[in-house]
Every structure is written in C-alpha cells, then in structure tokens.
Design a protein that fits this description.
Radius of gyration of chain B: 30 Å
Helix content of chain B: 40-55%
Distance between the termini of chain B: 89 Å
Oligomer: heterodimer
Strand content of chain B: 15-25%
Radius of gyration of chain A: 38 Å
Mean pLDDT of chain B: 84
Number of strands of chain A: 30
Low-confidence stretches of chain A: 1-11, 188-197
Number of helices of chain B: 2
Helix content of chain A: 10-25%
Number of domains of chain A: 2
Strand order of the largest sheet of chain B: 2-1-3-4
Largest sheet of chain B: 4 strands, antiparallel
Largest sheet of chain A: 22 strands, parallel
Shape of chain B: elongated
Strand content of chain A: 35-45%
Largest interface: A-B, 51 and 44 residues
Structural class of chain B: alpha+beta
Chain lengths: 442, 141
C-alpha cells in the first residue's frame, strides 16, 4: 500500500485505475464464480425438485386407488384386464368374481416404466386406464396378509400391501419408497361362508380362544341343523372320551376335534350377534321381592321366580335372581328375562328342574311381547355368565322362539331337549351330568 | 473507458459504478438462491406430506379391517397397524364414540358402546413436525 500511496502523491489519480480494476475484477470474479455455481446448482436442483414433486404426486394418486380396489374386491384372480404391450400384471382384483377386474400392471410401454391401473367392466371392456406411478426402478412388490398373493391358495384378499420404490434417475440415489395398504370390506357373494347361515340352529358366540363345545364321557350333543362356532381357538371343539356330536354342518372359525356325524366347514370370520344392538327389555310391573309369579309380568328382585305346573301370563318377566321351572309349564307370548343391563349382580340362573316340560309359544313369529324385540323367549343379560341348566329328561319347547344368552354356557345334568328356531349362547358345556346325558337341539 | 483520458475527476466513478453493479448482482443472487432453497424445501415438505398421507391411509385401512377385535374404548393397540412401515413418522389415533342420536354426534368413548366409532388418525413427520389427518368411521362387526 506504500507504493500506492507514493503513486497517489507523485502521479495523481492515474494509478488508481489499475488497482481499482484489479480489485474490481477480483471481486467480480468471486461474485461471478458464486453466481455461476448458483446457476449450475439451480439447474440440477430444479430437475431434482421436479422429480420429487412427481414422486409425491405418484404416491398420492396410487394411495387413492389401491385402498378402494381392495375394499371392493371379492377375490384376487389370475385373470387380467389385458393391457398395453410391455406391461405385465402385478396383481388383479375381481370385483364380482367374474370379469369386472381391476388390474395393476407394471412394465415399460416403450417410453417409460410405470405402474398402471386398468379397470374392466363386467363385459370385459376397458373402462379406465390410469398410469399411477411413473418411474425407473424395480417392480413393486405385493404381499397379501403377510404372504405372497396367490390366487389359487388365497382367493380372498383380506389385506393387500404394495411396496413401491421409485428410483431417482436424476440424482442416481435418494430412492423414494412407500407402501400402500388396502383391506377388504365386501364379504357377500356365493361361496363365502361369511355370508351364509344368518340364523343357525346353534350359534356359539364365545369369541377369542375359549372352548366353545366341550363334551366329555358318553355325553351327546345332537343338533338338528347347523352350528356356527365363533371361537378362534385350535381347541374350539373338545370331544373327550367317547362322546357324540351330530349336526348338519358345523362352521368353525378356529378348529378342534371332529365327529364324522357333523361335517366341518372352515369359517372365515365370526358370525355377528344378531341381537347385539337390540335394547335390553323393559317391563312395567313391580319390583317384587318375594319371587311369587302370582304378581304377573314385571320386575322381580332378590328371590328367583319359581314356575311349577303353571301357565305363564303373557308379557315381559324380568328376574334379577333367576328362574326355576318345574313340572309342566306353558306360556304364550311371554318372555323370560334374566338379569339386567346394569345395576344388579347378574348372577341369577335359569334352571329347568328334572323332568320339567316347558313350552313357550308365540302366537306368531313376530308377536314379540315388547317392542322392538324379535322373537326371543328366553333372554339372559350379556353381563350374566351363569349357565342355563337343563335337568334330566327336560323339554324346553318354543318352535318359533329364540333362546338368547350371549355370554353364558348351556349345560345339562342329564338329557335336556330344546326345540327352538335358534339357540344363541356362549358355549356348550357337557362335561358333567354323570357323563351319560346330553343336549338335543331341534 | 474514453472518459478516463478526458476527465480525471470522473475516474473514481468507475469503481462506484462497479460496486453498485456488484451489489445489485449480489442481491439478485441472494434472492435467486433463496427462492431456490425455498423450492427445495417445498419439494421435501411435499414429499413428507405425501408419505404421511400414504401412512395415514394405510393405518386407516388396517383399522377398518373387519377381522380385528372390536375395542370398546377405541384405543386400538399399535400392533393393529404393525404391517405399516411408520419409520420417521408418529402415528396417533384419537377415538370418539357415537352418542346414539341422529344426525350423529360423537363424544368420549366408550359412551355406551353403540357400535360406531369415529377415529381420527394423525400422522406427523418427525422431520418437519407436521403431517396428515385422516378420519374414518368404524362400525362394529
């Protein structure tokens, strides 16, 4: 700088021009360099940014389609909806079990690699053909319920997951991977055991892993109709000793012991409790504490209601301490309700004494004693798990009625016979009773 | 350049002009780079949102699965959606239960356990602390 200062004095301002120019050029060089780098980076980044936006867009489109296709699908099929040359099917969903098919295709159509969805109507004509994902990369992977989607071994796509990896061709790295999941809703259609038998003769609602049918010794369970077992246990049916199980067919979610007199059919999912959302019955009379049925229909607390060789008056009988039925008892349009929806102990028991002959008629299939109930004649609260006990040589007859005890077992201490349009209970327990009795449901 | 030879007092303006020019270019560069950074940030955010959306929809599908057990208070365990890869995302499910009225309103669960739940699934990206919300109705089977 000393030189500069000297120059300034001796030569005036002439020397500044060169210095200024050098400084300016240097600064300009730095700025210009930075600017050039910025432009180069911007060129790169805009391509990458565009790529990212495209990928995100693909993910959104694909996730919108897959879930609805799986939801509507009746089955996974090997049939396809066809497709342009170069694209091969990844998975095909049949909506109707026929040619109404949504095909997911992957491959290159010559200009780009893509995942495409094509939908055919029932006549096989293409309705829509939408490219979902545009990318370069490996084929998407498909898994059904955790396993490979094999149309032969797994006809029903309960859960389908497609994993897509989009290769970032611009950058060469930073691949974008995401998974889409769909779960089936539709269970209707022929050949689907989930749709058949809304009202079997015997419905065992016990869920989870509990034993639903437990027959020991020489006991017998003889059902003149179909049985549905909701339990998912591998020992849902236990036949120990030399018992006998008879039925038209048994549909079972889990599995268990088999009897040739009762052909087994696998069931896909538990049956619904048909009275699950029906309000708990109410009544007007009472409350009575002495359990004397002479009061007529109403609410009974404290003492069990005992019917012996009598006629039950029509109406709603609610007992919080159970019922005892002995001798010959008949009733028309009466409903026996054991327990309460809340606020009582729910430990009362319905007992048919030995040799009891109980007939609960309905004047018609819809002549429910209270509104809006269906034709239930014996109703035990869901909170009450006390067994329905059938004594030796008993007969409970209600050809139009339903016995509904969602969480209680049905047991017999001898031979109990039940005639009802449907028996809906938690389970069947025939482990006692001298091991030589049984229950017959017809 | 011609000026310099004629008038010495104007020589200084060359520097000032240059500096002004550089300053303007500098500001421009800052603006361009800023906009660029913005667009990169936006594309990254967009990807986070899109991925959060796929996660939320997948979780919703897993919850809609009719084969899973009904939970009366709506607090479905995280194992329900264990098949969904949630790496990098927080998943929370806020349940509400039907009041039994019409038109339907929803309150705290289990609320009588009437068989209809409103599940609000929030998937939040850990890196941007924002995400997607999906609401589903679950019916008891």
């Amino acid at each position: 700088m000393g030189h500069v200062g000297a120059r300034q004095t001796s030569r005036g301002e002439d020397g500044f021009t060169l210095t200024e120019l050098l400084v300016a050029i240097t600064i300009l060089g730095i700025i210009g360099g930075a600017l050039a780098i910025a432009f180069v980076v911007s060129g790169h980044s805009s391509a990458e940014t565009t790529q990212r936006f495209k990928e995100s867009h693909d993910a959104q489109i694909a996730s919108a389609y897959l879930a609805t296709d799986v939801q509507s699908a009746k089955q996974i099929t090997a049939s396809t909806c066809g497709g342009p040359a170069g694209l091969v099917p990844v998975v095909n969903f049949s909506y109707d079990g026929g040619s109404s098919i949504a095909s997911y295709l992957f491959g290159s159509d010559g200009s780009e690699q893509r995942l495409s969805r094509r939908f055919c109507d029932g006549a096989g004509g293409v309705v829509t053909d939408v490219p979902l994902v545009h990318f370069a990369g490996a084929a998407p992977t498909v898994a059904c319920d955790g396993a490979a989607c094999n149309p032969a071994s797994l006809p029903k796509p309960n859960k389908v997951k497609i994993t897509v990896t989009e290769h970032n061709g611009v950058k060469g790295s930073d691949d974008y991977s995401y998974s889409l999941t769909g779960v089936r809703r539709s269970y209707a259609g022929t050949g689907d055991p989930g749709a058949a038998l809304a009202y079997p003769k015997l419905l065992l609602l016990t869920s989870g892993t509990a034993v639903a049918i437990d027959v020991h010794g020489n006991n017998r369970l003889d059902v003149n109709g179909d049985i549905i077992v909701n339990s998912t246990s591998s020992t849902a049916v236990v036949l120990q000793g030399s018992p006998d199980l008879k039925c038209s067919q048994i549909q079972i979610v889990g599995s268990g012991d088999k009897d040739p007199d009762c052909p087994t059919q696998d069931r896909e999912r538990p049956a619904r409790d048909p009275f699950q959302f029906v309000p708990f019955p109410t009544t007007t009379g009472g409350p009575f504490t002495d359990g004397d049925p002479a009061h007529g229909p109403g609410l009974y607390t404290t003492q069990p209601v005992k019917f012996t060789d009598t006629t039950i008056a029509p109406g709603v009988w609610i007992s919080q301490a159970g019922f005892e039925l002995a001798g010959t008892v008949t009733g028309t349009d009466a409903i026996l309700v054991n327990g309460c929806s809340s606020g009582c102990a729910n430990t009362g028991q319905i007992v048919l004494k030995n040799n009891a002959q109980v007939t609960l008629n309905l004047s018609s299939a819809t002549s429910a004693p209270y509104s809006p109930a269906p034709s239930v004649v014996i109703w035990q609260a869901a909170a009450n798990a006390t067994p329905l006990s059938l004594g030796a040589q008993t007969q409970l007859s209600s050809p139009l009625g339903v016995v509904y005890m969602p969480n209680a077992p049905i047991t017999s201490t001898g031979q109990g016979n039940v005639t009802a349009s449907s028996v809906i209970v938690g389970s069947v327990d025939l482990t006692g009773g001298g091991n030589s009795g049984g229950i017959s449901i017809g | 350049m011609g000026r310099r030879t004629h008038a010495a007092d104007q020589r200084g303006e060359a520097l000032a002009e240059l500096l002004v020019t550089i300053a303007i270019i500098g500001i421009t560069v800052v603006v361009i780079v800023g906009a660029l950074a913005n667009s990169i940030f936006a594309s990254s955010t967009q990807r986070q949102y899109a991925t959060a959306d796929t996660v939320a929809r997948s979780v919703a599908e897993s919850l809609e699965d009719r084969t899973i057990a009904w939970v009366a208070d709506g607090n479905y365990p995280a194992s329900t959606w264990s098949s969904v890869d949630t790496t990098g995302y927080d998943v929370s499910v806020a349940p509400q239960c039907w009041n039994g009225d019409s038109p339907a309103t929803f309150g705290a669960c289990p609320n009588g356990n009437l068989g209809l739940q409103k599940l609000t699934i929030t998937v939040t990206s850990k890196s941007i602390s924002r995400g997607q919300v999906v609401t589903i109705m679950k019916r008891r089977t």
